[in-house]
Every structure is written in structure tokens, then in C-alpha cells.
Write a structure and sequence with these properties.
Elements: H1 3-20, H2 24-33, H3 36-42, H4 45-48, H5 53-59
Length: 60
């Protein structure tokens, strides 16, 4: 994982936490359990890091 990918994951965890009214820790656990971090966000980083944040959060 690159530094940019890591920063993207952290950013998206916090964006989801803000949108969903949960703590970043809760969101991290949920996304990790569902494999969203590796099978979606990291796998498709090249496409997902460019759209607006709210689009990606809604897609998650």
C-alpha cells in the first residue's frame, strides 16, 4: 500500500464516520469486516480517489 492509498483510506473512513454518525473506529471495523477497504477502496483506488467524496461514501 502506498502513502497516497493509505491517506485515501483514512480520509474515506472519516468521511463515512461523519456521514453515518459513527466513530472512525466503528466505521473502520465495519469496512474491514466487509472487506470494503481491500476489495473495493484499494482495489479501485485509481478510479475512486478522483470523484467527489459524497459519491464514494454513497457507493460504499
Amino acid at each position: 500500500m502506498t502513502k497516497d492509498e493509505f491517506e485515501f483510506l483514512v480520509y474515506m473512513i472519516h468521511a463515512c464516520a461523519n456521514k453515518w454518525g459513527k466513530s472512525p473506529t466503528e466505521v473502520y471495523s465495519l469496512l474491514k469486516e466487509k472487506k470494503v477497504l481491500t476489495k473495493y477502496l484499494l482495489l479501485h483506488y485509481d478510479v475512486l480517489h478522483t470523484p467527489r467524496t459524497d459519491f464514494v461514501v454513497a457507493d460504499i
